[in-house]
Amino acid sequence: MSSNAALAETAALIGDPARAAMLAALMDGRALTAGELASAAGITPQTASGHLGRLTEAGLLAMERQGRHRYHRLASPAVARLIEGLLELAAARPRRAVATGPRDAALRQARTCYDHLAGRLAVAIADAMTARGQIELTADGGAVTPAGEAFLVGLGVAAAPTRRGRLFCRPCLDWSERRPHVAGVLGAALCTRCFALGWVRRRAGGRALEITPAGWAGFRDAFGIAPEDLRGPA
Amino acid sequence: MSSNAALAETAALIGDPARAAMLAALMDGRALTAGELASAAGITPQTASGHLGRLTEAGLLAMERQGRHRYHRLASPAVARLIEGLLELAAARPRRAVATGPRDAALRQARTCYDHLAGRLAVAIADAMTARGQIELTADGGAVTPAGEAFLVGLGVAAAPTRRGRLFCRPCLDWSERRPHVAGVLGAALCTRCFALGWVRRRAGGRALEITPAGWAGFRDAFGIAPEDLRGPA
DNA sequence: CCGGGGCTTCGGCGGCCGCCGAAGCATCCC
DNA sequence: GGGATGCTTCGGCGGCCGCCGAAGCCCCGG
């Protein structure tokens, strides 16, 4: 069975510290240049170039040229899901007293995860919507209830209307909170809407998000989320 | 961010050919001894021992002693999902004219994927249930319809009754067929039932399944699946 | 047209790690 | 108890691969 070899090859590709750092840097869904990725991984551009070439050839990354820059991004949501899963398992086990700095704290409060929101904010949103009967989430999947659809329409979320049947959403286990939040099409639409409403914006240099004053008001009114709900536990 | 290091470490663990082969061998959900895994990976027992120790310490495998044997299995469904995703991505890209032997052909027709059915059989089941309005499957998730619940009860499938709301099921992209089939709790329950009914049984030495005469009849009566439906394309 | 910056290719060095032989433990069977 | 079997630990060898310096290519701006 040579599919084993392909399995090992793909995993090994992710398994290098420099490449892993670059992939993680791309987990916010944006496209970055080779130079930015090199500095994110702490290596020289020429080394990064080699890595990026291999990742692209393997179908993990996609690249598009724009002038003299070359922008690299994750090739597909499947890649993002894969890294999510890896992070989940990686976070689960060893936990050897990682010193969590302030940057990390910002990340834990709110961030993007490829195309949807993650962190305590996302978990709080999922909790609120579940408590209100707007969505149902289990380990296997999730769906929006009729009440939820009405709520989302009111919020201006442009989730694809249910063709026939229910609008499903994918649960995504938060690596920092170890609780599920909303991913999939619905998660992406929610995230887009929050940006459009100016409720969140990217913090300088990183995946972390800043919740704007309008955002605090919006999340309170729409989901009943208070600032205390997003403070770290302990 | 030291979670990057953990990410790379976990991926690198899977990224070794010998370890990948052992993990793949465990993807049928059974527990194997170190010796069996060593031969599956084509290495000596002492080398396998080292690998198994590392995989277990990282939380990818679980081990239980039974007499002088030590049985190793995947530590959790999360690990199985991860490898699934890796196989999906690995199968997607390179495709360098892999000679598919007869063993591979058996694998493509029917096999187990950790705790549920996979291969053409599983895809045909998912297709039939979808066509009959018994389940709905999208990329984001899936659910059983009321009609589907009734059907499953009639079949004797012991899927946990819906607590409140719908019984979700997880879609799983088949690495050989590139089409989704049913995973999650429902997939596991269906698989268990098929074994209990004697419709399928394990082929000697491998993940491949053999469909019994009773199975052919059962799959025809229950799902309308004909032998032609499971023949390879081309 | 020419200078400069971003990116790539090439070559060689260095370290990590997977591999096996040999030896040591544990468990079961007779 | 003796011997066989299954598994582990130890030590040393060998190869793969990630790293950077230097040089070349491409695209932009002036």
How is this fold's topology laid out?
2 copies of one chain form a homodimer.
Chain A: H1 3-14, H2 17-25, E1 32-33, H3 34-41, H4 45-57, E2 61-66, E3 69-74, H5 77-92, H6 102-109, E4 111-113, E5 116-118, H7 120-131, E6 135-137, E7 142-144, H8 146-155, E8 168-173, E9 180-183, H9 184-196, E10 200-202, E11 209-211, H10 213-223
Antiparallel strand pairs in A: 1-3, 2-3, 4-5, 6-7, 7-8, 8-9, 10-11
Helix pairs in contact in A: 2-3, 3-4
Chain A binds a DNA duplex (30 and 30 nucleotides) through helix 4.
Structure description:
The structure is a homodimer of 234-residue chains. Chain A has 234 residues and is α+β, with helices and mostly antiparallel strands. The first copy, chain A, folds into 2 domains: 3-75, Winged helix-like DNA-binding domain superfamily/Winged helix DNA-binding domain (Arc Repressor Mutant, subunit A, Orthogonal Bundle), CATH 1.10.10.10; 102-230, no CATH class. Chain A is built from 10 helices and 11 strands. In chain A, α2 crosses α3 (34-41) and α3 (34-41) packs across α4 (45-57). The longest helix of chain A has 16 residues, at 77-92. Chain A binds a DNA duplex (30 and 30 nucleotides) through residues 16-18, 33-35, 43-51, 53, 65, 67-70.
